[in-house]
Amino acid sequence: MNVLEFEKPLAELDAKIEELRHVSDAGELNISDEISRLQKKSQKLAESIFSSLSPWQVVQMARHPKRPYSLDYAARIFDSFEELHGDRQFADDPSVVGGLATLGGTGVVFVGHQKGRDASEKMRRNFGMPRPEGYRKARRLFQMAEKFALPVITFIDTPGAYPGVDAEERGQSEAIAGNLYLMAGLKVPIISVVIGEGGSGGALAIGVCDRLLMMQYAYYSVISPEGCASILWKDPSEAPHAADAMGLTSEKLLDRGLIDVVIEEPLGGAHRDPDGAAASLGAALKTEIERLSGLPVKELLDERRTRFRNIGQFDEAS
To answer: 58-309 has which CATH code?
Structure first.
């Protein structure tokens, strides 16, 4: 159930290798040569599959049920992490996590979207779709970062902000807009990373930053492929077609200047080697913090505003 359609040939081969390992460990036969041969075959097969993923397959990778989430990365990357809760206005939203952390001896404030693994956890985390109190919790942590002059790190992984009636009643749009306004002028470095799904304003609400990084098999877009297909073709099953047209992959976004760095994932994706993915992400974050921490506040804010004003192309009508 946790294997994508295009991963099945690789999963079957890996299962065969594991089965042969059990036989070898039992001491019945020496089949190390056969295991080695199959491992090489698995390596080549993985290289073949993952070197030519379509945009829709990348979206499926970003949603992979075994993919590391924000707290998985936090446990592997940060030297210490103390989670803080609540927005001091209404409630705590578990779909947004955050708190104080240290990375390579540097104190930071961390905020990220968080999804769940099993059914009960998915419900508690609201499938990674924040309500207003989640964004207001993030806002409180951003203000704390500015007060104590700590860099901000955010992990983006949401299909979008929760569109329910209760969220609208409590001011979903204002909560998102308030974060955009605050982050645009926050007087500390902000580094954001799209680790999985980056959907619409729900992602941008913690993504106004100085440097935007993106995992190789993540996606970042104004709307989900299914939402786009529903609007344009009145048919969500056209999502693969929409994904092709939207330019939502890390490769496309880097070419268009919308993101700054693509973090290469282990062969087969982050879910096949979470430790390797976390090591690459942690190294990239340390590099960005070191670069940004030496900038004067005025220069930092000027660069941030220029970065967003330069996004996109347009032609003036004659």
So the answer is: 3.90.226.10
